[in-house]
Amino acid sequence: MHRMTLESRGNSLNPRDPLNQEIAAMAPWFHNLHLPNGIQTAPDHPLGDFPAYKWEQIAPLLATDLRGSRVLDIGCNAGYYSFELAKRGASVLAIDHDEHYLEQARWGAAQLGLSENVQFRNLDVYDLAQVDEMFDTVLFLGMLYHLRYPLLGLDLAAERARETLVVQTLTHARPEDAGVPHDVSYEDRRALDDPSWPSVAFVEHRFAEDPTNWWVPGLGAVEAMIRTTGFRVAARPGHEMWVCRRARDNEHRSEVDRATGRTRRASS
What we know:
The chain has one domain (about 50-175, about 185-265): Vaccinia Virus protein VP39 (Rossmann fold). By secondary structure, it is α/β, with parallel strands linked by helices. The protein contains nine helices and nine strands.
């Protein structure tokens, strides 16, 4: 999704209310936070009550009691998902590389009384190559298609997850069947043209007016990529949404180490 065209300018009701003035000062908003007094940060969001309806898809598949659990929210934006998990008792590390969103998230945490439950850091997914901490649950929502190096980003997100990885991404509509052969010969490369082959469309210029939309994968491609990280798809709670559980370690860890320079640093 293109955040700039889909963001809200904030709550247009009672503009003289001090809280609404603070919301307006931090606009635009991509997350519609519901504050304790009933005020919302983006009630006129083009996508509706976003991301509440996305959370409703995920929520039943995550434990209601997360006390003692550690969660990583990658690309946290204004913190909606982080706050919902913190309300269930989780200790959350919420990261984003955009200080605008982090300002909104810190403010939202204070309004919701969750500042002690959620830690915010200015990091992006590639910075996770230097993070050693493991998390019980990792959220990787709305990130994959914005990354110039999507599989590397997915690998880095997945390796931080001890148990659960939740993925959401934009996809294309081409029908796909994950039941493709395990090997294809050079002579049979036409199999790659079959609509059932997992595919990823590359965007050279813009998609939805957004220059950061680099890739639009198919459903089968997303699930295939997830499997290569060592996770299995446990549930598909909604459109373009996957809840995944760890099945094994990533067999390609050594290449991830080389791609991130960890191999050179370890030997120096």
